[in-house]
């Protein structure tokens, strides 16, 4: 997508041909800053500290982290060390494991002296594939928005509510949940987005930054406003992303998603989840019981990041001294509350049967 009219991806190889550059998303939306990663450990830090975030992007950066590791040491021992360090960075997003498993298996079967070149090639493939997957998600999601627009009075606006950031900043390009919105905007459909601020990390600000850069009308709202808007008919559909989708269609997304799904269900508002197939964890069935929920530092809950009138960026404490904070990063929305899953292959029901049929070649091992 674009920043200030210039096309931009979220991760790329620098001009030197081996270091990896990323946008520092902890500085957005107030400042655009590029960080250069020159080691596997720094790539791990970028993922852990949320310099990059979003399940697809985490996977791509992890693949590049493996490539950086191969510039240091191509031995079997170091290959295993790179995998072990990167896999521990964040526990919930399955794309991390998917990318690392794919990279590890590939490198394990090539000669040591070939591993560096193969690792960079594979990381580039994973990044390019993500762009293609996300654009396809956008095309399929566009059809849903077209259908809703056709049922409204001529010239009406389609109001979409989204939670967290599932735009191009959460992927390599295009995004998941926001990709259909970009496609609709480019197709000339009048679309407006209700953007949840998504406490405590306020990833909704990244969504607002993206939409503003692309010229898409949007309104930033507090997380608890969505139900009110649905009650008054001001939301035509919800589209969110997911960090892990189970084999039966449960979705794990940023904390607060479950409550939005409940509100949508109560008000007969369609609730769609956009995801590329690497986000499906075929080994997990019951999302509530089986998906590990990341608990992050309480400082993220007790402090708010922003910019003061002088232009200085800082964290501001909002909690009484000594307050214990619970910072659960994700929740699980059961499949029964999901209207449909928007994937690169089309839209399907959030059911085990529908997923098995759409992705027969990617079924859980025990079903093959």
TrEMBL record:
The active site is at residue 243. Keywords: Amino-acid biosynthesis, Isomerase, Methionine biosynthesis. One of its GO terms (molecular function) is S-methyl-5-thioribose-1-phosphate isomerase activity. It holds the Pfam family IF-2B. The record marks 164 as: Transition state stabilizer. It is an enzyme of class 5 (isomerase). One of its GO terms (biological process) is L-methionine salvage from methylthioadenosine. Substrate binds at residues 53-55, 90, 203, 253-254. Catalyzes the interconversion of methylthioribose-1-phosphate (MTR-1-P) into methylthioribulose-1-phosphate (MTRu-1-P). HAMAP family: Salvage_MtnA. Belongs to the EIF-2B alpha/beta/delta subunits family. MtnA subfamily. This is Methylthioribose-1-phosphate isomerase. The lineage of its organism: Bacteria, Pseudomonadati, Pseudomonadota, Gammaproteobacteria, Vibrionales.
């Amino acid at each position: 997508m674009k920043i200030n009219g210039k096309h931009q991806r979220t991760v790329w190889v620098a001009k030197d041909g081996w270091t990896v550059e990323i946008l520092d998303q902890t500085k957005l939306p107030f400042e655009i800053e590029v960080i250069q990663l020159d080691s596997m450990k720094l790539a791990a830090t970028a993922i852990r500290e949320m310099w990059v975030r979003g399940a697809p992007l985490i996977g791509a950066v992890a693949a590049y982290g493996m490539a950086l590791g191969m510039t240091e040491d191509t031995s079997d021992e170091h290959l295993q060390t790179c995998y072990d360090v990167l896999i521990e960075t964040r526990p919930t997003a399955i794309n991390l494991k998917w990318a690392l498993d794919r990279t590890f298996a590939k490198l394990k079967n090539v000669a040591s002296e070939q591993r560096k070149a193969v690792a960079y090639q594979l990381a580039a493939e994973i990044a390019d594939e993500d762009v293609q997957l996300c654009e396809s998600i956008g095309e399929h999601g566009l059809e849903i928005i077209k259908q809703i627009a056709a049922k409204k009075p001529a010239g009406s606006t389609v109001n979409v509510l989204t939670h967290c950031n599932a735009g191009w900043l959460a992927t390599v390009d295009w995004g998941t949940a926001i990709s259909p919105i970009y496609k609709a905007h480019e197709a000339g459909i009048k679309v407006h987005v209700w953007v949840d601020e998504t406490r405590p990390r306020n990833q909704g600000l990244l969504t607002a930054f993206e939409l503003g850069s692309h010229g898409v009308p949007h309104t930033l709202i507090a997380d608890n406003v969505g139900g009110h808007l649905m009650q008054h008919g001001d939301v035509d559909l919800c589209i969110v992303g997911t960090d892990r989708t189970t084999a039966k269609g449960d979705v794990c997304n940023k904390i607060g998603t479950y409550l939005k799904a409940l509100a949508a269900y109560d008000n007969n508002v369609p609730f769609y989840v956009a995801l590329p197939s690497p986000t499906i964890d075929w080994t997990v069935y019951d999302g509530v019981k089986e998906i590990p929920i990341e608990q992050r530092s309480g400082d993220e809950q007790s402090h708010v990041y922003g910019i003061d009138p002088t232009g200085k960026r800082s964290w501001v404490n909002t909690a009484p001294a000594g307050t214990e904070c619970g910072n659960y990063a994700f929740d699980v929305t059961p499949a029964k509350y999901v209207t449909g899953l928007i994937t690169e292959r089309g839209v399907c029901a959030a059911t085990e049967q529908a997923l098995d049929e759409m992705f027969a070649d990617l079924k859980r091992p025990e079903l093959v």
